[in-house]
Backbone:
């Protein structure tokens, strides 16, 4: 049997690399671990970490096509982050101009959660730990 040990990283292609890097680092609190410009692709690649752990590869490509990003579209539904207090996290995001949906309660776990989007409309979730 295949022995997967953990998710190594999540790759995200941004339409505006600088804007998305600022969102993930300045708004969500990721740290830029490494950054490289790949001239042969006219593309940036940034490695973003959370709490010291490498999590996201952030890419730019010239003129990437738009992707359907609504949570119920086929494919990746959303990317979820654990937080100790959803309401407090929502207030902190609101202070930075990020609009979240109203808090939902997960019917299976009873935990609070909410959804919001990155600059390209990628659905993101805050889930109460």
Residues:
């Amino acid at each position: 049997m295949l022995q997967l040990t953990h998710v190594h990283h999540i790759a995200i292609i941004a339409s505006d690399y600088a804007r998305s890097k600022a969102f993930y680092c300045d708004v969500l609190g990721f740290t830029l671990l490494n950054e490289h410009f790949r001239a042969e692709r006219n593309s940036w690649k940034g490695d973003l970490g959370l709490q010291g752990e490498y999590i996201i590869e952030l890419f730019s490509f010239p003129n990437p096509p738009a992707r359907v990003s609504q949570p119920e579209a086929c494919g990746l539904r959303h990317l979820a982050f654990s937080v100790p207090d959803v309401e407090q996290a929502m207030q902190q995001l609101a202070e930075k101009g990020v609009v979240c949906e109203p808090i939902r309660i997960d019917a299976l776990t009873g935990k609070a959660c909410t959804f919001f989007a990155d600059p390209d409309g990628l659905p993101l979730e805050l889930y109460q730990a």
In short: The chain has two helices and eight strands. The two ends are 31 Å apart (CA to CA).
